[in-house]
Amino acid sequence: MNRRPARPRHTTAPASLPPDSLATSIDLAARLVEAVIDGRALTEQLARLRAEHSDPGINWGAIQDLSYGCLRDYGRGDALLRPFLSKPLPTHVHAILLVSVYRLEARPDTAHTVVDQAVSAVGQRAPGLKGVANGVLRNVVRQRDALIARLDADHHAALRHPAWWIKRLRETYPTNWQTILAAGNMHPPMSLRINPRRIDRHTALALLREADIAFDELPNQALRLHTPLPVDQIPRFFEGVFSVQDAGAQWAARWLAPQAGDRVLDACAAPGGKSAHLLELADIDLTALELDPRRAGRIRENLDRLGLSARVVVGDATQPAQWWDGIPFDRILADVPCSASGVVRRHPDIKWLRRPKDIAGFARQQAQILDALWQTLAPGGTMLYVTCSVFDEENRGQMADFCTRHRDAVRIAIEDHHDQIVLPNAEHDGFYYALLGKTP
């Protein structure tokens, strides 16, 4: 989406709303949406907002659902509001209306309450616009059926992704591009991984059944919960019996397939889920590399909870001379920074913030990381290249270019396929995997 023209801002400090009210939830969710409109990352802004508001009555679950859901419905909210707005509104007021429209679509049975609480939220920001907000939202409610029918003809609003994004997916996946887009608009699933160092599989499954937690066992042994739950409701979670990890991500450790005694590098390792999975599968000498010291701390925390140990190193993957001891690695997991287009439902602000030129930028960064890491891989060793992207430039195009640059690189089949594209669906997020061998 192109950045909207600047709207006038209203600087009146808000009066107090009841912290546990829907009005407060709408108002704070709108602040997050407004921040994304202004080009800021949702996760960081949510953390900042929580730090600024310590009242225990605030419903952060509702705020996250409203803001994330509003942003997942990229383009749709604006299309519903457009017929009733004759001129731009202050950015925060417009964001309140976007959040409210999402809530109206998600809970049409509570329309009266939603409109009332949204108007209250507007009243704290721009009292003079309460009537406008009330009129707009009531029109949306009254004309809902006709508006939704009109949305079906609006490609951008119906698919809830930017036009350039849609075009790329249509070109790369001509038969299932719509399925990929639909997955990007879903609520994300929640999957667990069993830690075999702490418990056997049979006992772990029995724990979940005893707790009345319904789940499906997937082909890679991931457990997809029918209903996502807070981790404190997962039995023995804090004892390290289970970890939360998307089912699509749980292929990484299995396809790298480390063997006992291997010297393994997990590059760009935070928050440590794949590092932990590697250590659970085999007795290996693991180095977990991470550029951000704060995120490196997350790796240590996760390994401590699971009773696992690794060498956690803060360093730049493109500069091995700064952190590598010169002893080659037998296996490398190169889970590189990417557009995150395969996990967009978990980070819905990406659809607002990414631009077409960004994909080429990620591809350049990935190439730099791969070229640097390749020199640390032992002859006869293997590297698993991983992205959470669905864009070809970061995936197959990247691998083709890499093999052209490195004549000692050979492609290794993954389950009888040249590579593996795990497209997002109801069970898992989207990932790309390619396995490379280094000739002796």
SSE diagram, text form:
Elements: H1 22-37, H2 42-52, H3 60-72, H4 76-81, H5 91-106, H6 111-125, H7 130-142, H8 144-151, H9 155-159, H10 163-172, H11 177-184, E1 190-194, H12 201-210, E2 215-217, E3 223-225, E4 242-244, H13 251-256, E5 263-267, H14 273-281, E6 285-290, H15 293-306, E7 311-314, E8 329-335, H16 350-353, H17 356-374, E9 377-387, H18 396-405, E10 409-412, E11 420-422, E12 431-438
Parallel strand pairs: 5-6, 5-8, 6-7, 8-9
Antiparallel strand pairs: 1-3, 1-4, 2-3, 9-12, 10-12, 11-12
Helix pairs in contact: 1-2, 1-3, 1-5, 1-6, 3-5, 5-6, 5-7, 6-7, 10-11
Describe the structure.
The protein is α/β, with parallel strands linked by helices. The chain folds into three domains: 22-159, N-utilizing Substance Protein B Homolog, Chain A, CATH 1.10.940.10; 190-244, 2-Layer Sandwich (Alpha-Beta Plaits), CATH 3.30.70.1170; 248-438, Rossmann fold, CATH 3.40.50. Helix content is 44%, strand content 14%. The protein has helices at residues 22-37, 42-52, 60-72, 76-81, 91-106, 111-125, 130-142, 144-151, 155-159, 163-172, 177-184, 201-210, 251-256, 273-281, 293-306, 350-353, 356-374, 396-405; strands at residues 190-194, 215-217, 223-225, 242-244, 263-267, 285-290, 311-314, 329-335, 377-387, 409-412, 420-422, 431-438. It is globular.
